[in-house]
Amino acid sequence: MKVLHYLPILCFIALGCAAPTEHKPTFEHDITSGPSPWTSDTFELEEDDFTFAIISDLTGGERPNIYGTAVGQLNRLDPTFVLSVGDLIEGGTEDTLQLAKEWDSFDGRTSNLNMPFFHLGGNHDLTNPVMRKFFENRFGRRYYHFVYENVLFLMLDSEDYEEQRMKEIYEARAEALKILDGEIEGVYQESEYYKMEERSIGGMSDDQFEYYKAVLDKYPNVKWTFLLMHKPLWMHEDNKGLERLEALLVDRPYTVFNGHFHSYSHRKRQGRDYIMLGTTGGSQNPADSMAFDEVTLVRMDKEPVITTLKMEGILDETGSVAVVYDSLNQARKDF
311 CB contacts (<8 Å, ≥6 apart)? Predict the structure, then answer.
């Protein structure tokens, strides 16, 4: 009978079996000093495929207990890492103490994730030059890239304007908000801010384009490329948007994600998937059937398998949504 104890060992010897080897993920980037936009560069060991998640807007009057609940749900889903498409704080202020309070609130809740989180700024996070500097001091670069397991991620800044233009947008926004608040007479839809192209589709500088051109030149043979941004830069019809990058991407497989509109939609453009995400706690239009809280899961094997999960359907073992009660800083309800 004792011989039976040696059968597994004999199997390895006779059949040339080998114990499974651990695979250490590859993670490449070009940030060598200062703060980084991610919370950790330690990833779980993986097989050939991996899964990442994406959260969307929290702003426009963040509703309590949604994002905290999403963090708990993401821990259950256990992706390798979590990305964002911006609008993580209410912002819209030059008060650095208020900014610190709001970012502390967001980062405090995010620290409960069991995996790395990658920050990205939206218009609420990068509303004016003071907020831009605050973001850079806290998280480093506003736009950056990384390569994980031969998959390239481009994290774009859709609020990438010259400082003077950023001030003009901020001042026009402040006046439009006074109209909404009834402080001055006028119609919001007729305001200068409402008519600004940047309000809805953002902008990208020549410097950012050149940065990503160099990145694409460096990584011509990656398995897939993902582009994440807050506003839909691809809606531009000039050199302030994604058009120049799309020309460089034409011969490679890629997928685009953005937020900002608080309503989920999907379309094919250039034969690729362009996906607008819903919300992860941000304000919603009750009349919009595609305005829902969600997290997106992407399983990356030979090509991405994209799954949109409504938070209301992510249940725990009791069959309920496990609500996590969190604290947040309520601010102006606009976007």
Answer: 66, 69, 70, 73, 280, 292, 293, 294, 295, 321
39-160+203-313 placed in CATH 3.40.50.2000: no
Of 70 and 26, the structure prediction assigns the larger pLDDT to 70
pLDDT band at 47 (very low <50, low <70, confident <90, very high): low
* Euclidean distance between CA atoms 86 and 94, whole angstroms: 19
CA angle, residues 117, 118, 119, in degrees to nearest 5: 120
Owner of token pair 């309800």: 333
Separation CA 256–CA 273 (nearest Å): 6
Q: Longest Cα pair distance anywhere in the chain, in angstroms?
A: 93
Helix (H) or strand (E) holding 214: helix 206-218
Q: Which two tokens stand for residue 73?
A: 């749900």
Domain boundaries, the chain: 39-160+203-313
* The pair of three-digit structure tokens given for residue 127, joined into one six-digit string: 């509303």
135 near 121, Cβ under 8 Å? Answer: yes
As a whole number of angstroms, the distance between CA 263 and CA 290 comes to 5
Contact predicate 176/191, CB 8 Å = yes
> The tokens of 173 are what?
């926004």
Token pair recorded at residue 62: 């963040």
Cα 44 from Cα 81, distance rounded (Å): 9
Q: For the whole model, what pTM was predicted?
A: 0.86
Residue 170: what pLDDT? 96
Quick one: how far is CA 294 from the chain centroid? 13
CA torsion sign, 175 to 180 to 183 to 184? positive
Backbone φ, ψ for residue 13 (5° rounding): -75, -50
pLDDT of residue 75 exceeding 50, the answer is yes
pLDDT in tens, 275-284: 999 999 999 9
Nearest to 139 by CA among 125, 152, 123, 124: 125
Of 163, 88, 172, 104, the C-alpha closest to 132 is 163
Tokens at 152, concatenated: 């390239």
